[in-house]
Amino acid sequence: MGNGGLIIMSNKFIGKSVKRVEDKRFITGKGRYTDDINLPGMTHAYILRSPYAHARIKSIDTSAAAAMQGVVTIMTGDEVGHYGVPCGWQVNFKNGDIMKEPPHPLLVKDKVRHVGDAVAMVVAESREIAQDAAEAIVVDYEVLPAITDASKAVEAGAPLVHDDVPNNICFDWEIGNPKAEVDEAMASAAHVTTLEFVNQRVSPNAMEPRSYIGHYDGVYDKYTLYTSTQNPHLIRLLMCAFVLGLPEHKVRVVGPDVGGGFGSKIYHYTEEALVTLAAKKTGRPVKWTETRSEAFLTDAHGRDHVTKAEMGFDGDGKIVGLRIKTFANLGAYLSTFSTAVPTYLHGTLLQGLYTTPKIHLDMTCVFTNTTAVDAYRGAGRPEATYLLERLLDLSALEMGVNPTELRLKNFIPAFDGVTQPGYQTNVALQYDSGNYHGVLHRGLEMLGYEDFRKAQKEAAASGKLLGVGFSTYIEACGIAPSAVVGSLGARAGLYEVGQVRVQPTGKVSVFTGAHSHGQGHETTFAQVVADRLGIPMEDVDIIHGDSDTVAFGMGTYGSRSLAVGGSAIMKSLDKIIEKGAKIAAHKLECSPDDIEFVDGKFTVKGTDKSLGFGDIALTAYVPHVYPANLEPGLDFSSFYDPTNFTYPFGCHIAVVEVDKETGATKVKRFIAVDDVGNVINPMIVDGQIHGGLAQGIGQALLEGVEFDGNGQIINGSYMDYAMPRADDLPMFELDRQVTPCPHNPLGVKGAGEAGCIGSTPAVVNAVIDALWSAGHQVKDIRMPLTSERVWSAMQS
Amino acid sequence: MELTGIHTLNAPAETIWAMLMNPETLAKVTPGISRLELESEGVYKAIAEVKIGPVAGKFEGKAEVANAVAPQSFTLRVVQNSKIGNVNADINMTLKPLSDTQTELSFDGKADMSGLLARTGNRVMSGVASTLTKQFFKNFEDELSAAG
After folding, report:
1. What CATH superfamily is the domain A34-144+209-258+265-298?
2. pLDDT of residue A3
3. Which pLDDT belongs to residue B122?
4. Looking at residues A10-34, what average pLDDT do you find?
């Protein structure tokens, strides 16, 4: 695999900002999303949801609703409550006991456990009739006290979300060095910085709401599920094998155009199984599309950690220890990957970029009467980065040192992972390659640190507060080596599938198990294939999202599409070229070893004798003059299982201005120097970084799901939930460093989550820095940093 | 949502008490309540139509007068259900005679909301609550002068 260089390919497209081929249909309103699909005889479903966060169901009366004209069927927990959706990752208690895994029924029979819990589904001739009928269903609830805060849910006497889960604890867990060693290191520290904070819950807010269509074809005894998912094959596997017990070969799952996911469309949702059951029952297609209001209640949320973290330093400013206690809120039910996020996607990143010798995380994962929490752009890694980077900047303030010098002093030295080994952390992972000093130095050049400090002083004199915040992050992407994640409790392998079918005319169809829902795979993957085969991009079609056409796939999340899915395609391309060389050698009457493939031509080395890619493709399908013992055709499928995660990293710097009188905070500059390995399409990478930054800055300043004392979400609409808008953000200043990934053929590390992982702590650090510059020595302001909270912090 | 209000009315406590115990008057002065129908002693069927900013709906529910100590205090319990969510309110009303012709009417309680009502515009509701409170006392004064 070499060092990840691209020397074997022509570089006509790779590294160029090729405009996205998929955008033509998207920006002309012609994308085909699930809700755009209408099947003959289709019915519409509406789900009646609990208005209470915690209540026992005493009775459900559907008689009035069932009698309404246009109602086709009504389903309740009595009919389908024995079906439930599974959790995809088993984590054990510290003592080895298996995590508590209470059922997550498709429709609830006994008691509802969060606002929005599904109680009944009405299928009717129109969506309006279904909704009217649902409102005619009478549910008699006995309202119970609700608990929403994970750190309080474990206390004695707290309401129990699941009657048989004591103290609401799903599991407790730890990672790192033995606790006693960390305690000893902390006791010996010259300075200990202590930070207690909440990494608040956010709502994913994909542009397209979730939408599903169930279809059953009795003639062929075959089901089709159209779903707004990030991973159609995974949904098919989960729904067939673990929920409904349907034969997988009789179920087709299609994820057509999908309008954003950010993790929230990874999971197998109850409604997917419900529409499938209802289609069989009624013999008609059943469509369900959520309202935006339902999205706030039922799309898995992100983050929600309550943490106390301590970082110890010796007299020279070297980190000697890191000790953390965190309560992670899982919500009322286990979503597909919910248990992996606070553990293996969070605890394993607590080394950060630093040589910290002793680390211990004590984690308690807790059920509450809230919407399920699962991966949201970054998934655990933003929480780890927030914790570390807040501690670094705060420690610098407390010790009166330069926050960037403190980092440089503690960074892991550069290593390429080829001539130098990877870096073994104290929290299980081995980093593949890195140059952490490089990104910080470049960020500082762009910022002008000394000039900023001068400007900060001058601004203070004129009554304005300026602050700068740093965040140097690392993430584990390219998810994931199957054997590694399997040993950690994953109930799936995390390889990817890439099939390359060369058509007789030399046109190429590529089938990938990765799924594009905004990332631009149809462009990036085509750039790779076109350059590898030396053909125009127009000759390459990228096909994804349909379990009947794509052999298999694990989907798109964890910044894995190019690193894992692209590598699978590369493997198939190698096989195509190897076979093509055999065909060419036969026709050119030489040994296959004497053939080289350059710029789309199979050439006898050192001669001008060559055959074009199209000639070889045609010969493969019209094998009249053809090697003996070689099969016709040119079509290969490969599974690629990565040998390690990839480890993108970078340096984010925020400059903020805080209004002394009101606490209003404006991000004046945002600098991001990211190292995502080799870059295929810089424009697409920039776009991914931009979107991630907007979401990360959004969490710092604007976003946050709020519950009242009864477990009601009190900001479940766009009037109440503050999404970042263009005028909340400055023009981003981006740059890149390239440290190729040493263990995949493209040398790529992944860019989907970086912006969201690095940015949040940089912004909060900048506000804290601004306040300290005016003498307000506050340690923390709870996110989102609304003007009221910042103002209050300045009054204390 | 916290609900509090205090206002001095120009009438003796007995007059005000009688008005509050009269479902027709109570319906008239309470913003949003369009009708109260006596179901049993102290229990009314309440029909309400509310439009608060973006949230509009017709509510049907129960209003109950409990712990009545004439003419000093009672608890008004309201349970309202609608397509846009449910409201549960417990309001303690107190009448304090200031003189033969003046009474201080105060209330103190909270309303729990669920459903769309809780999710949408919750934070503007507190502002709305104070508007409704003012309206309640203004309506009461209008009724008093109409009666007077």
Report:
1. Aldehyde oxidase/xanthine dehydrogenase, a/b hammerhead (3.90.1170.50)
2. 34
3. 67
4. 94
Element (H, E) at A785: none
User: What residue in A sits closest to B82 (Cα-Cα)?
Assistant: A135
Give tens-digit pLDDT for A422-460. 999 999 999 999 999 999 999 999 999 999 999 999 998
Please answer whether residues B122 and A714 qualify as being in contact, where contact means their C-beta atoms are separated by less than 8 angstroms.
yes
In what order do the strands lie in the sheet containing B73-82?
Answer: B2-9, B103-113, B85-97, B73-82, B55-69, B43-52, B33-40
Say if CB A430 and CB A422 are below 8 A apart: yes
Q: Which domain holds residue B108?
A: 2-147
Angle subtended at Cα A373 by Cα A369 and Cα A378, rounded to the nearest 5 degrees: 160
The Cα–Cα gap between A708 and A115 comes to 12
Residue A111 predicted with pLDDT over 70: yes
Residues of A in contact with B113 (CB under 8 A): 712
Residue A405, CA atoms < 13 Å, CB-side half-sphere? 10
Asked: is A23-31+495-640 a CATH 3.30.428.10 domain? The reply is: no
- Domain count across chain B: 1
Distance CA A594, CA A581 (A): 9
ipTM of the complex: 0.80
Residue spans per domain, chain A = 23-31+495-640, 34-144+209-258+265-298, 379-477+647-795
Q: What is the 3-state secondary structure (H, E, C) of A178-212?
A: CHHHHHHHHHCCCEEEEEEEEEEEECCCCCCCCEE
Residue range A379-477+647-795 in CATH 1.10.10.10: no
Rg (CA), chain B: 15
Q: Do A720 and B118 touch (CB under 8 A)?
A: no
Q: Do A717 and B83 count as a contact with CB atoms less than 8 A apart?
A: no
CB atoms within 10 A of CB A3: 14
Residue B81 pLDDT greater than 90, yes or no: no
A381: CB partners within 8 A, 6+ apart: A345, A346, A349, A473, A475, A476, A753, A757
Q: What's residue B123's pLDDT?
A: 66
Residues 6 or more apart from A670 whose CB is under 8 A from it? A652, A653, A654, A655, A693, A697, A729, A730, A732, A733, A759, A762
CATH code, domain carrying B86: 3.30.530.20
> What global pTM score does this model have?
0.94
Interface check for B2 against chain A (CB to CB < 8 A): the answer is no
DSSP-assigned states of every residue in A9-54:
S--SSTTS-PPPTTHHHHHTT---BGGG---TT-EEEEEEE-SSSS
Does the beta-carbon distance from A115 to B85 stay under 8 Å?
no
Q: Which two tokens stand for residue A72?
A: 């086709």
Chain B environment of A296 (Cβ under 8 Å): 119
**Average pLDDT value for chain A:** 96
- Residue B60 banded pLDDT, cuts 50, 70, 90: confident
Structure tokens, A605: 């080395």
CA distance linking residue A9 with residue A566, whole number of Å? 14
Q: Which of B58, B82, B114 to mutate to test the interface with A (most CBs of A within 10 A)?
A: B114
DSSP state of A280: H
Tokens 């890694």 belong to residue: A381
Query: In this complex, which of A293, A296, A712 lies closest to B114 when CB atoms are compared?
Result: A712
d(CA A48, CA A180): 51
The identity of residue A668, as a single letter, is K
Return the minimum-mean-pLDDT range out of A1-5, A118-122, A230-234, A333-337: A1-5
Q: Do A720 and B122 touch (CB under 8 A)?
A: yes
Tokens of A361: 């995380």
Predicted pLDDT of residue B121: 66
Would you state the pLDDT for residue B26? Answer: 87
